């Protein structure tokens, strides 16, 4: 069965929701397709995560985001975006996975595991949180290794290695230590990341200096075993007892998906997708990008607060082109 739409939006995160709001205001026939839960990436954030931004900067379409804290937490964000989606009765299909996109006679034909759609335009707002950057070391596939951190309780009274020096790594290290875990950080560079939240960075530095959290700077994991981890440090290879490895080394967009729909990527390690920064239209006519996926491997470049404008940019371009007539 073929379902006809003016626009198909891939991804029901904050930016996908913002795109849906623009479509609804202009009475365009649209659908949002999301392979997981609503705001799936935010849902998979650590339970106690606090945003760097204030609630005002996370608002979409000027819908007020009221937080009881100076900076909102994960649960408040989930509630906000859920209420925006439900109160505006947005047409969102959850737990539906896109399997292919083809362009046939100027129209896009999009297949999912549940349905087939035909649309004039496609907006990809799928983010980058699904594919972790792997360590590529022996033992990384052991059950004790994870690339996501949800909460600290499972790591109480355990020897835990946290890999990385970003916000997520620092938050995980501090939370696990406070829940009674013995934390060792392994950091490729010589310091805690400069982009770590300004109110958290002094905390982790103090815990390291007082010896509460052990750290190996300028180091990398060499091998992961059932009961230990080998670390390549400036002093040579060191083996330490280990129960769990939390490798928070960042994530990447689904480049294979972009290439499958003929979006060109830059020929360097950044893999930036090609698009017009004034309209957000890619090299594929009628196919647009919105949100953090626009940065390629520069996953720190785009956030909710500076990419929420993409929805209006795309809508303005579509309206000016009078694509529905």
What does this structure look like?
The protein is of the alpha/beta class and 325 residues long. The chain has two domains: 201 residues, 3-Layer(bba) Sandwich (FAD/NAD(P)-binding domain), CATH 3.50.50; 114 residues, FAD/NAD(P)-binding domain (3-Layer(bba) Sandwich), CATH 3.50.50.60. Helices cover 24% and strands 25% of the residues. The strands form four sheets. Strands 1, 2, 3, 4, 5, 6 and 17 form a seven-stranded mixed β-sheet that branches. Strand 13 and strand 14 form a beta hairpin. It is elongated, with a radius of gyration of 22 Å.
Distance between the termini: 24 Å
CATH top level class name of the largest domain: Alpha Beta
Q: Main beta sheet: strand number and arrangement? A: 7 strands, mixed
CATH homologous superfamily title of the largest domain: FAD/NAD(P)-binding domain
* CATH architectural category of the largest domain: 3-Layer(bba) Sandwich
What gross morphology would you assign? elongated
Strand content: 15-25%
- Number of H/I helices: 9
> Domains counted in the coordinates: how many?
2
Uncertain stretches: none
- Multimerization status: single chain
**What's the overall average pLDDT, rounded?**
94
Q: What is the CATH fold-level name of the largest domain?
A: FAD/NAD(P)-binding domain
